[in-house]
Amino acid sequence: MKLKLFALLLFFPLWAQAGAVSQLGTGDPLRLVYVEMQYLYQTGIQIKQQYDFSDPLQQLQCQRQHGYILTRASSLVGTAGQIPEPHRDRVIDAGWQAFACVRCGGDISQCEKLPEEMDFIKELLTSPQATQAIEDASPSVD
User: pLDDT tens for residues 69-126?
Assistant: First the structure.
């Protein structure tokens, strides 16, 4: 019994870190950012239309109901940091715009620029040069 408990205590930190690679998953970081940005944009529009942020009670209700979404938006920004130059900075900026869009505060104008940024990312996804740059920047698994 003591051996099983010791083994559990010894290996638990390894198991806890096993899924900590990215909340968005694995694969092409640009594609992950694009898919998550679509979700955040739609959710942000709903949040901005559903609540009146001049009312502190509605703002608190929004934060309680949608607080998790800021974690997803932060993860999006982190994944955007994996995109190779020359487009990394613009995609990171778009990630911060998505963060502002889903934040419980402000107005719907914080979401207005996201469709343009999503179109830019979609264009990068279909561009052969961008795809090759991402593949070249990815570490090889040998």
Answer: 999 999 999 999 998 889 999 999 999 999 999 999 988 999 999 999 999 999 999 8
- Number of domains into which the chain is organized: 1
Residue listed under structure tokens 């408990």: 5
- What is the mean predicted confidence (pLDDT) over 120-136? 72
Contact 73, 97 (CB under 8 A): no
Judge whether 11 lies within some domain. Answer: no
The span from the CA of 41 to the CA of 98, in Å, is 6
- If you count DSSP H runs as helices and E runs as strands, how many of each does the chain have, helices first? 7, 0
Residue 17 covered by a domain: no
Q: What are phi and psi of 82, to 5 degrees?
A: -85, -10
Give the list of residues 6+ apart from residue 124 with CB closer than 8 angstroms, or none. 30, 87, 130
Specify the DSSP class assigned to residue 140: P
**pLDDT, average across residues 6-32:** 53
pTM of the model: 0.71
CA distance 54 to 41: 22
Domain-embedded: residue 36: yes
